[in-house]
Amino acid sequence: xxxxxxxxxxxxxxxxxxxxxxxxxxxxxxxxxxxxxxxxxxxxxxxxxxxxxxxxxxxxxxxxxxxxxxxxxxxxxxxxxxxxxxxxxxxxxxxxxxxxxxxxxxxxxxxxxxxxxxxxxxxxxxxxxxxxxxxxxxxxxxxxxxxxxxxxxxxxxxxxxxxxxxxxxxxxxxxxxxxxxxxxxxxxxxxxxxxxxxxxxxxxxxxxxxxxxxxxxxxxxxxxxxxxxxxxxx
Length: 234
Fold this sequence. Notes:
Oligomer: single chain
Order of helices and strands: HEHHHEHEHEEHEHHHEE
Strand content: 15-25%
CATH superfamily: Vaccinia Virus protein VP39
Number of strands: 8
Distance between the termini: 35 Å
CATH architecture: 3-Layer(aba) Sandwich
CATH topology: Rossmann fold
Helix content: 40-55%
Shape: globular
CATH class: Alpha Beta
């Protein structure tokens, strides 16, 4: 009965199959790049994050603190191959969980991991979410905001603010500037090749944009110090 009811609730909130939502405004070159990258993404992340990969994911999920909500609604923006939304679904099996990304290839990989079919995967633009106001308990985005350029990032943040409930949370996981000198150089190069002056905000670890958009923000750090979590409320 739980599985049946959960499926019915999901269909009211989001399509039951992966759909294309307003993709015409997304750069097709970048989209195709991630469609190809999806075949190597998990291997890359495993090599890059090493033993800290599960640490950041678990830190984000545990920070949601929604145990008291019987059927929480969770939206993972730029979900990639699904590691975060799968972790949410595992911890909160009664949740209505949605993974949202602009890359069809990434979503296909994520969907393949969802062997119990507990998650809805939707293809679309982070700056144009197809959901009504105040409908999610948790909206998260892990290590992906720097991919959004200029106004697209602001619009995406405003959309997250719009769809999260007044007593909900927006959880934004971002990289810390590495301490190791060599890794720091690689980090700077990674940010600069993104091709946008906006990446300077991430290099400087600037949080002024969040402060201007949200009523309250809190910053916490993973035990390893490799990532920080920005928790925003509207």
